[in-house]
Amino acid sequence: MAGTLALATACKDNRADEVGTDADYENSANNNTIDDETILVVENDDNAKFLNEAAEMQLEEISLGKLAQQQGTSSHVKELGKMMENEHSQALRELTTLSQSKSVTIPTSITERSKKNYDDLAGKTANDFDKAYSEMMVDHHKDAVDLFEKAANDSEDGDIRTWASSKLRTLRTHLEHAEVAKKETDRTKS
Fold this sequence. Notes:
190 residues, mainly alpha, disordered N terminus, Ferritin
């Protein structure tokens, strides 16, 4: 018992020597437990960040898809808008279920950036709208493929990895359709 007490006291004394400012504590090289916990939090934050970014993308593509169906003038743009609305709505339903299973709250309405994109597009007419929408869909889907590939390859969560991987084919198809629509609208004179 005396040995245990001495060990406990020695540990307590060593710990007391280590106590310093928060900066000292964060910068401590002997702080393996905190570093491991920090890594775990960062990994969980990466998963939550992906789920949130994916939800924001789905919501934006749905709202812009509806707008394209209303304001688009070419059949390519209207069809692309319908595809975006339908398929991103399905992806959002799946994402909502996945996020709930991970106890992660995701957005349910578009962000300020998405609202700005929507307003900018809504102010365009005829072929100017078609060109801007098609170009935006190309850019958005290149970004989406990159985001989902990263999650499919790097996420520590198997469910997130699997879901992200399952969406890549659809996102690549969307990108191809957006590129076709962009080529068509580029040929049309304003």
